[in-house]
Amino acid sequence: MLRSVSAKTVRDHARAFLWWMLGLVATVWLTVAIYPTVRDRPELNRLVQDYPEAIRAFLGEGSIDFVSAAGYLSAELFSLVVPLVFLVYAIGLGAGALAREEEDGTLDLLLAHPVSRRRLVVEKAAGSGALVVALGVVLWAALWASAAAVGMDIGPGRLAAATAAGVLLALAFGALALLVGCATGKRALATGASAAAAVAAYLVYGLAPLVDALEPAQKLSPYYLYAGGDPIRSGLDPAHALILLGLALGAGVLAVVLFDRRDLRV
User: At 226, which helix (H) or strand (E)?
Assistant: First the structure.
């Protein structure tokens, strides 16, 4: 008998999670290992400040002090690499959580067990969310260990704040992918719609300083909620964190409602 859909979800993705974990740890170690060659070169700050305004807008203000530990990590990891990795992972999990089961014709096997539709969505979401959070823990541990190894002047608290912001961003878009998948039963549509929304959020955040028409929308972008408070320097902004968490929970609730009411292809 199927006792826990969440546990099954985690078990089914365990091998893929291992590869994601290894790739993420390798990326972190390689990036941090280069830092000692940057730390004692203040002229790099002038080089970054001479970048075109468009590039600096996407890197974020925190990366202007490139030779500091926080500025280096912000520019090299948290401006693009971390959100990209976590968004791809979370959107893939959310889009395939139930839409893949429906497309593969295995959803009827799940529903044949004494599991309601609503519980199925909740447990699938919980299992997928746990995997994203676990990948965040891996990132934090890898950052802390590698930063200590090269003598980076940055504490585990600030690394945790930046990591938590990335996890919350990923959970929000992963929940959006789950919502579209539950509403349509189409994994490709769920993946494409969520990825397009994530790219749009990134572009609005990055282009707003350059395009006056986008400036009012910048603070509405989920990417602003992730990076706008500069969590690696200032800590996790509670308001930003709560909004991202609220977006994830809201999308999850809608996914439950729509999946419960829709005619399924089984």
Answer: helix 222-227
Tell how far CA 112 is from the center of its chain: 33
Residue 195: HSE in the Cβ half-sphere, 13 Å Cα cutoff: 13
Q: 206: which residues sit within 8 A by CB, 6+ positions away?
A: 57, 58, 223
- Is 202:223 a contact under the CB 8 Å cutoff? yes
- Closest by CA to 253, choosing from 175, 195, 188, 187, is 175
Q: Where are the alpha helices (DSSP H) in 79-186?
A: 81-96, 99-104, 107-111, 117-150, 156-184
Q: pTM of the predicted model, to two decimals?
A: 0.90
Cα distance between residue 8 and residue 146, in whole Å:
33
**Coil/strand/helix, residue 209:** coil
Contact 63, 44 (CB under 8 A): no
Q: How far apart are CA 262 and CA 214, in angstroms?
A: 37
Tokens of 95: 């889009």
User: What are the backbone angles phi and psi of residue 132, rounded to the nearest 5°?
Assistant: -65, -45
Reported as a pLDDT band with limits 50, 70 and 90, residue 52 is low
Residue 136 CA to residue 170 CA, distance in Å, equals 10
